[in-house]
Amino acid sequence: MAWWFPRGTDLAGIAPANADDLATLINGQRCRSLNYQSPTTLYAAFTVHRPMELAVLQPVQQ
Predict the structure, then answer these.
(1) d(CA 27, CA 40)
(2) Could you tell me the CA-to-CA distances from 48 to 16, 35, 53 in Å, in that order?
(3) Cα dist from 26 to 12, 19, 34, 56, 61, whole Å
(4) CA–CA distance, 30 with 38 (Å, rounded to integer)
């Protein structure tokens, strides 16, 4: 966020809608460290599109 708000900026003056817009913008940008995928894309791939059997915890066999 330092790119948009310089160090020392009082974030109390930032409207929540503007902060949400900034978070959406940042999380939608592709990153080299994520193999040129966005955090939003990876989050969706690992949560929303997961097979149901992997998302549900299986009971422990005794």
Answers:
(1) 6
(2) 26, 20, 13
(3) 20, 10, 14, 31, 44
(4) 4
